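R.M. (postdoc): so does anyone remember the format we settled on? I'll just put the structure tokens first.
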């Protein structure tokens, strides 16, 4: 892939990732009424926490330069992510199944469209594929024609419509079952490349990535910034910058490695299959799974305060 192609792919994948995030976040109103008793208890707990922070010297840091706050945040984030992406850890392997399901869903959805995303007619490789494309193209007209007939009973009409749906499903299953073997072979290669990226390529670059993220997000410059974590109000900027840097690394490494392995493989893969594995949707879905896991981990470790709507999104995913 050329540098221009990588930049374009990164930009498209980030755009899709942001669309997915906005579509899945559940928004809650912050002005929900609470009882006076609950407010009093909350105020008491907050006061106790502030007292503990003051005693430990980890409260707000109004006199500490922003650069120093971000430097300490960077050290903590680097240490935590180095542990998360350690070669003997299971974070990467645990996420392979989720990523595999996402990719398989995307692959089969793309196969079921008679045109590629470039608006080119797909080449027909199987009989079921050609008949399915035609039936899918005219299924609304066929259904309308069937509904326009006169039937001896509603049961016969329902059975007729169900038969049409069954024919479509059978063609779909037959076609996709023929495509599964090639998908499985490519997925094996893709998983190997992604694991290499997460466990070998990423760890030595984490420190620079963390520092660049925190600096670009200005996490040490907000009024209440502290040196030991990123506040929930800073999360949007933190997320945007981390995902940009992460996506750049992933596209640059995985794009070249995967294409090289596919093109140099003893097996012959179809051009549309190779194109699919450089599709921005694939990179955006992969980044979403990995980054969501990172945010959850950093939150549990006390380094990252996640907004309520984001925690709900993680729970629902």
């Amino acid at each position: 892939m050329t540098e221009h192609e990588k930049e374009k792919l990164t930009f498209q994948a980030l755009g899709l990732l942001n669309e997915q995030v906005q579509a899945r976040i559940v928004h809650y109103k912050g002005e929900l009424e609470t009882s006076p008793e609950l407010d009093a208890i909350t105020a008491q707990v907050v006061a106790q926490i502030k007292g503990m922070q003051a005693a430990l010297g980890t409260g707000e840091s109004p006199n500490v330069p922003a650069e120093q706050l971000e430097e300490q945040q960077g050290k903590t984030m680097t240490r935590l992510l180095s542990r998360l992406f350690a070669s003997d850890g299971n974070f990467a392997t645990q996420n392979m199944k989720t990523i595999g399901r996402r990719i398989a869903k995307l692959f089969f959805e793309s196969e079921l469209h008679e045109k590629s995303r470039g608006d080119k007619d797909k080449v027909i490789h199987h009989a079921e594929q050609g008949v399915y494309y035609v039936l899918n193209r005219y299924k609304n007209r066929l259904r309308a024609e069937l509904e326009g007939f006169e039937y001896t009973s509603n049961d016969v009409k329902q059975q007729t419509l169900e038969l049409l749906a069954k024919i479509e499903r059978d063609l779909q299953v037959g076609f996709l079952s023929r495509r599964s073997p090639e998908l499985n072979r490519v997925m094996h290669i893709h998983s190997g490349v992604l694991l290499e990226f997460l466990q070998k390529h990423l760890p030595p670059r984490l420190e620079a990535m963390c520092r660049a993220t925190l600096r670009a997000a200005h996490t040490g410059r907000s009024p209440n910034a502290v040196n030991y974590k990123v506040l929930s109000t800073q999360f949007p900027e933190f997320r945007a910058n981390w995902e940009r840097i992460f996506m750049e690394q992933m596209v640059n490494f995985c794009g070249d490695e995967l294409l090289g392995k596919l093109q140099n493989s003893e097996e012959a893969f179809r051009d549309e299959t190779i194109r699919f594995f450089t599709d921005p949707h694939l990179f955006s879905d992969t980044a979403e799974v990995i980054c969501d896991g990172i945010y959850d981990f950093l939150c549990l470790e006390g380094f990252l305060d996640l907004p309520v709507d984001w925690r709900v999104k993680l729970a629902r995913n």
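R.M.: ...and that's the designed sequence above, right after the tokens. Also worth knowing: The CA atoms of residues 190 and 258 lie 6 Å apart. The two ends are 32 Å apart (CA to CA).
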